[in-house]
Design goal:
The chain contains 3 helices and 4 strands. It is an alpha+beta fold.
């Protein structure tokens, strides 16, 4: 039986990738999460997480938030365009129940803009 977790190739891991997302990328925000994204040139989406101690001093609560974000991303990652995505939690996140956080994450995934095709898809054949 294959593992149900998030595979290593679906994660943003290098500091340079995080830095590139901070410099030039698109932004989305909600009540509990903000996200930055940019095209990655691969054939799949990748996720990075940033949950600071400002969100909660307790590691248990920060880890719960990260588990919820990873699980939500795992469910929709095959439907997302090939982008690198960093999800950052806000202070209000720690006090919210899991089902509300998952609902907000689902809304965040739907708001991601589809990438424009790189090839010409016009109506005139060459």
């Amino acid at each position: 039986m294959p593992a149900a977790g998030l595979p290593r190739e679906a994660r943003v891991r290098r500091a340079g990738d995080f830095a590139a997302l901070r410099q030039a990328s698109g932004r989305l925000g909600g009540r509990c999460f903000s996200a930055r994204w940019r095209p990655n040139g691969l054939d799949h989406a990748r996720l990075g997480l940033a949950v600071s101690k400002r969100v909660s001093k307790r590691a248990v609560e920060r880890n719960r938030i990260k588990r919820l974000v990873r699980e939500s991303f795992r469910r929709v990652r095959h439907q997302l365009p090939p982008i690198d995505l960093v999800v950052m939690a806000r202070e209000a996140t720690a006090a919210m129940p899991g089902n509300e956080l998952l609902a907000e994450l689902d809304a965040l995934w739907r708001r991601l803009p589809p990438l424009k095709p790189t090839e010409g898809t016009g109506t005139i054949a060459c």
